[in-house]
Amino acid sequence: MKITLSTLRKMYENREKFAVLTCYDALFAGILENCGVSVLLVGDSLGNVIQGEATTLSVTLKDMVYHTRCVARGAENAFIMADMPFGTSQRSPQHTFENARKLLAAGAQMVKIEGGHVMAETVHFLTQRGIPVCAHIGLTPQSVHQFGGYKLQGHTEASAQQLIEDALLLEESGAALLLMELIPAALAEQITDQLHIPTIGIGAGRACSAQVLVLHDMLGLYQGKKTKFTKNFMENSGSIQEAVINYVKSVKNNQFPDSEHEFQ
Ligand code: KIV
Fold first, then answer.
1. Taking the mean position of all CA atoms in its chain, how far away is CA 223?
2. Whose CA is nearest to atom 4 of ligand 1?
3. How many domains does the chain have?
4. Would you give the DSSP letter of residue 239?
């Protein structure tokens, strides 16, 4: 049966963790959903892992529409979320709506938007007009140059407080999911406890309601710099399918991430 936002909300109410993976094509969409992945994120990380770029900044809306359509063709049941690439959600709520509409027309059920309080008005505008939004805070890769690199966020008292305020405001503005990237585990737990919507973590500890990894990282394929918060599930698996099933099980049983993959 098709997974919808209501399905994810029910899982959250039942305290059932769900597994998310990035996905960029039809073949993997079918494989991942058959192995129990609930949400396929058509991430702008495709700029890194598919296009070979150093950042996600050059990914276009056309790229995202193309890959979203590919994933939607291959997925029968999984929930499909698509990233708003850099430059498509920053100008105005109206401009963002027009761009997000194209991702939904390509098969996405939700869009993901990077940014904290500055995106609250846009999140409100979209969600009031029928477009579900996942807000993405913490390390937001589209702001890599602002951050001066891919660095842990929320590690000072002031920045942690700002992230808590951002999370609460984005929920109030209508975000249905909150993704937190590269923040201390205790902070992610505090935010998860204060919200009434599911949180998805990547490098944010095990207290989140769900976990996401970049597909190529969890399959041990990505040749770039290794990061502490990822895990190569191919290491103890005989096939891609077994690796994905092990990832889903580890998320659901709260075995991944463990202390080795968390930040203090
Ligand atoms: O684009 C992406 O893959 C993402 C994940 C890192 C969460 O946003």
1. 21
2. 43
3. 1
4. S
Is the model's pLDDT at 222 over the cut of 90? no
Catalytic residue among 114, 171, 181, 262: 181
Testing ligand 1's pocket by substitution, the residue of 39, 42, 45, 177 carrying the most ligand atoms inside 8 A of its CB is 45
| CATH code of the domain containing 60 | 3.20.20.60
Residue 230 pLDDT grade (very low, low, confident, very high; cuts 50, 70, 90): very high
Specify the pTM.
0.98
Q: Which residue segment(s) compose the domain that 87 sits in?
A: 5-261
Q: Rounded to 5 degrees, what are φ and ψ at 25? A: -145, 170
| pLDDT one-digit tens code per residue, 72-104 | 999 999 999 999 999 999 999 999 999 999 999
Among 1, 40, 3, 11, which residue's Cα sits nearest to residue 198?
A: 11
- Kindly report the CA angle at 87 between 173 and 174, in degrees rounded to 5? 10
Burial of 253 (0-12, 13-18, 19+ CB in 10 A): exposed
Rounded CA-CA distance 115/255 in Å is 29
Burial code (b: 16+ CB inside 10 Å, e: under 16) for 202-223 equals bbbbbbbbbbbbbbbbbbeebe
Pocket test for ligand 1, best of 44, 137, 144, 178 (most atoms within 8 A of CB): 44
